[in-house]
Amino acid sequence: MKYIHQIITTLNRYIVLTETIREEQAHRVFTGDEFNRIATRVLKNNATGDIFKAKADLLQAKVIREAPRVEGSFQLDRRVSRFLNEMAEQESIGLSGNIRIEVEQLSSLIAQLSDAIAGNDKLNSDQYLEQMDLRLSNLQSQSSVNEKAILRAAEKSKSYPPSFTVKQRYKEANDLWEQYIIPMLEMIEPQGIFSRTLTELENKLRGYRRDGQLMLVTQRETMEQVIFRILDLRAEMSSSIHRSQIKLAPLREAYRKATRLSRSISDALTYLVNTRFKYADNFPIPNVSKRYSPALTDGNTGIDAYIAGLAKYSPEKTYLPDVKEGERGAPTLYPEVLNQLKESVPIDDTLQWLLDNYPDISTAYMLQIFLRLTSMEPQLASVLKERKRYETLTHIIDMPRRELSGN
Amino acid sequence: MDDIEHPQEREADDFGGSLFSSNMESMLPNAKDIYQKLRNGVHITSLGEGGALLYRELQKMEASYQQLFTLLGYELVHDSSGFFYFNSTEERSAALLSATKKAALVIYTLFSYLEDQNLDPAYTLREQPIAWASFVTAQIYHRDLYRDAEMPDASALRKSINWLKDKGFCIEEGDNIRFLSPVERFLRSVESWSAFDVKPDDREVEE
Predict the structure, then answer these.
(1) What's the pLDDT tens digit per position in B130-189?
(2) CA-based nearest residue to A189, from A201, A198, A202, A177
(3) How far is B100 from chain A (nearest CA, A)?
(4) What's the whole-model pTM score?
(5) What whole-number distance in Å separates Cα of residue B178 and Cα of residue A72?
(6) In Å, what is the CA distance from B40 to each residue of B59, B85, B164?
(7) How many angstroms from the chain centroid is the CA of residue B190?
(8) Residues in contact with A78: Cβ distance below 8 Å, sequence separation at least 6, in sequence order
(9) Which structural domains are found in chain B, ordered by start?
């Protein structure tokens, strides 16, 4: 325990230095000079004593060891470097490939679990369920780690100084998009391997629960847990991907736009080289206007006069014909027609009578009245006569004449 | 009397509202200045020389100006990048075309020069003051193109920059030149241009 305590304290004190050594000299033997250079850069106060002390402390705790054979050379302790590597991985993005492998192993576990259950092998089925649980929680943590890594990359792209080219600035975002977002989107779509496997697993487990095939209480508990994990994971994965997508999309757009712009400009310059300046009629330029026709402002008072004219302007009035109170074209109502008609029955030509008495109403309405009079009034009887031509306001109608008589 | 006057007032309101009211002078005090500038192809931004006042007025009374200039036969464009200009459909004179083309040459060669210097060209062009020396070096870099465009020396380059300055595309700050938002028009035109690579052929057939 004492050694563990010592190494962790030392690591804690010199973590920046150790981290830098790991990044720059990973798995390599480095000389005392190289160590000094890194230490001078990392440890802000440049006192030589500090550097020696750091070296002594690190050696004492066996964070760095003397390299074999070459005197005065060191290397990072293998266990420490492995530990740092593993910890650093938590910060970097897992590839979509890793997730795919997890999912594939999950799907092979499904097959193994069904075999075990079919063979009534309690020990193995227990084990497989636990492995599933582990893999699912792995997937969960990977997705959140990846999302964080993407957020960091997005922030980083924004904080580069302007001396960086667009390509450097947005390269990481663009790579993440192509290597992570796109394959992940494929996986989580309904037909993708991710969704398919999870659905299959969920259905299987629900089936076992229904059939009571998992007898042990612990097994049932684990299974419940796995089902909940599946539900969580499914929701979480797709929303995490979408959040990352939203973060990366503008950066990627900026990247593409910048590359598009520089490509177009080099195209335009090439076009200019090939066609000569004089004849390059299609050289892309904006339309900058300049009017040569005399301006209203050429005279001193021009625009004022013009605007003064406008100020007095009012649109021409349109007059609608006046309508006096009594003359308003009241709609012809059927009861009125009926009453008037009743006074003059019998009539030998109904439609002609309507045309004579109500010349203004539209043909359709007139025919409607005609129909009601001839066929729907119980007090009137109509008789069909020979065909005749009628002329309404808009139509010529060819139809049999009808006689009307009161009953 | 009231009954007669009332509808007239309403008509005036419907037609143009404030623009045609009698106190036009006080409402659009810089109308003449704005009109003359825009008419000469100047882009009015809030950063251009003396532009702050005009830009603010244009922005505040945009609807009125839109109507006024429409009546005068111009199309006032308020670009989303924050500048005003007249969109003209008129035939451009050869001199104007050539000046615009030369300005475009300056901007595009500068862009490609900045890119070669490992700088972010679009960002630099849009946001940063650019040293006069960069323009000169870009000219030397692309000296064949410049010679072809009859801009062999620094004074011809100067002329082009002055033209850009006159039209409100850039301002000068000491030894530096800072491009303003209207430079987007150049970038946009070249960006959309490459999408129509076939265009040159089409035009030749037509003419």
Answers:
(1) 999 999 999 998 888 898 888 888 898 999 999 998 888 888 888 899 998 888 888 888
(2) A198
(3) 7
(4) 0.49
(5) 56
(6) 19, 10, 12
(7) 15
(8) none
(9) 2-87 (1.10.10.2250), 94-196 (1.10.10)
Cα A211 to Cα A108, A198, A311, B100, B156: the distances in Å are 22, 20, 88, 81, 89
- Looking at residue B119, what DSSP letter applies? S
CA distance A47 to A170: 40
Looking at per-residue pLDDT, the higher value among A208 and B171 belongs to: B171
Is B115 within 8 Å of A262 when comparing Cβ atoms? yes
Question: How distant is the Cα of A384 from the closest Cα of chain B, in angstroms?
Answer: 59
Q: Is the dihedral of CA A24, A174, B120, B108 positive or negative?
A: positive
Closest CA to A303 of B6, B111, B35: B35
From chain B residues 160-189, the ones with a CB under 8 A of any chain A CB are 167, 185-189
Q: Provide the 8-state DSSP code for A95.
A: P
Q: What share of chain B is helix, strand, coil (3-state, %, to 5)?
A: 65, 10, 25
Class assignment of domain A2-89? mainly alpha
- Which chain B residue lies closest to A301 (C-alpha atoms)? B32
Closest to A284 measured CA to CA, from A292, A294, A275 = A275
Length of chain B equals: 207
Ordered by start, the domain boundaries in chain A are 2-89, 96-267, 334-406
Mean pLDDT (whole number) for A103-132: 83
pLDDT digits (tens, 9 = 90+) for A347-383: 888 888 888 888 888 888 888 888 888 888 888 888 8
**Nearest residue to A237 via CA among A191, A201, A185, A196:** A185
Nearest CA in chain B to A281: B200
Q: Supply A292's token pair.
A: 């040569």
d(CA A327, CA A63): 110
DSSP string, A142-180: HHHHHHHHHHHHHHHHHHS-TTS-HHHHHHHHHHHIIII
How many CA atoms are closer than 13 Å to the CA of B25, on its beta-carbon side? 5
By the CB < 8 Å criterion, does B44 face chain A?
no
Tell whether omega for the bond before A346 is within 30 degrees of 0, i.e. cis. Answer: yes
Q: Are the beta carbons of B125 and B110 closer than 8 angstroms? A: yes
Decide: helix, strand or coil at residue A387. strand
Instruction: Return the structure tokens found at B151.
Output: 């801009």
Q: Say yes or no: B53 contacts chain A, CB-CB below 8 A.
A: no
* Cα A27 from Cα A68, distance rounded (Å): 13
Q: Which residue has the tokens 């757009």?
A: A253
pLDDT digits (tens, 9 = 90+) for A276-323: 888 877 788 888 776 655 555 454 455 666 666 666 666 667 777 665
Structure confidence by residue, pLDDT tens digits, A243-261: 888 888 888 887 777 788 8
Distance CA A150, CA A96 (A): 13
Tokens of A281: 């009629």
Count of C-beta atoms within a 10 Å radius of residue B57? 20
The tokens of B110 are what?
Answer: 């500068």
Question: Which one-letter amino acid corresponds to residue B54?
Answer: L
